[in-house]
Amino acid sequence: MELLKVRGGNVLSGEIQVSGAKNSVLKLMAASVMCPGKYTITRVPGISDVYVMSDVLRELGAQVDFGDHTLSIDTTHADKYETPYELVKKMRASIAVLGPLLGRFGKAKVSMPGGCQIGERKLDLHFAALEHLGVEFEIEHGVVHANAPKGLHGGRVTLDFASVGATENFMMAAVLAKGTSVIDNAAREPEIVDLANFLNDMGAKISGAGSPVITIEGVEHKDLHSVDHETIGDRIEAGTLVVAGALCKGPVTVSGFKPEHLGLALQKISDMGLELDYHENGVTVKSDGKFKAIDVQTLPFPGFPTDLQAQLMVMASVADGNSIITENVFENRFMFAGELVRMGAEIRVDGHHALIQGVSGLSGAPVASTDLRGGASLVLAGLIADGETEVSGLKHIKRGYEHYSEKLQSLGADIELVKTDE
Ligand code: UD1
């Protein structure tokens, strides 16, 4: 088993570059099955979710090579349309191939992802949206059989909730539908804009990505071609490193991402009483390690991202006064709070609210990552805790953070990767 041993108390300073965005690259990879050809995607993080998506594409018959942050994908012979449970259960984002497969073949078989620790995470919005394009669904033995018997046609959908995954699947399927499609109440995340840019470069006709209404004019297979593309910077990794800099005083410059992709998140973090300087390609954070309490709720973009909720909770746990964090996106995303309490935080979770009573300091303890962002946040807590914190469950962190401990080390953190026999 691997553990991260974190000894708290060091000041972090210096400059750090973020990697390419996990939530973008996974969808770009999925989109490559829409049109046979050779794709090059650069600025790709070496994280396990990328390896799982590579296996999904291989399962569909594609050839995938990864090296030096570059993915070479050849979908020329990708002629299968089935994604097995072994892969989908490892990573829910595997279902991003549903829309592209429907576009390419008019049918797809994708295993149901099942629940995961941060919530039930259903697919009902994906199905309801795709039905407007003429897709019929049947679920048998845990496998979704999707078919468009008369081919895909344009359709209009208003999403009940601005789901990132449902917006992406609908947008990708609609590219090859006959006629015009519209998504109302679409998710507006920057990763959706990156995907729309990728698809438009391929020959798709998408407008409005990044706004609540996305319009897709269907094109024909012959209008599409393969492309080369650089992934956008990972705003969630950036936010995590900004919190690290804030907790450990800085100055830390986090670069390689667009600050406007973190608009409200950076504002909320700076409202807690620290200095933030904005640059074109990043921010510099500096603090005295003392924070004001906060009242924040997670919402789809441009709201405060659920993927930064746990990191903010670490700051709130040592803030002056009582904070309230309301989680509106995933129902079980406070599991990590229990681990933070083991480090001396005072947190009471009541449904989708967490009440955090700031304490004067945290104390190091053995803690277990409960999910990707929770795991990364436990490391952040260890950076300010008294003594040593041992974070286990590193597989969660490796899903989405490339060289996480090395990056923090390069800023001055005292972190060691330890292998144990257990
Ligand atoms: C994506 C991101 C994830 C981020 C989330 C919200 C990727 C790979 N993951 O996840 O990091 O935290 O957006 O910003 O991009 N829901 C339904 N039915 C559906 C679809 C979703 O009930 O058919 C619910 C989910 O259970 C969840 C909420 O809607 O409670 C948000 O889900 P969604 O926006 O779809 O997130 P993902 O695309 O899964």
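^ uridine-diphosphate-N-acetylglucosamine complex. The two ends are 6 Å apart (CA to CA). The first strand starts at residue 2 and ends at 7.
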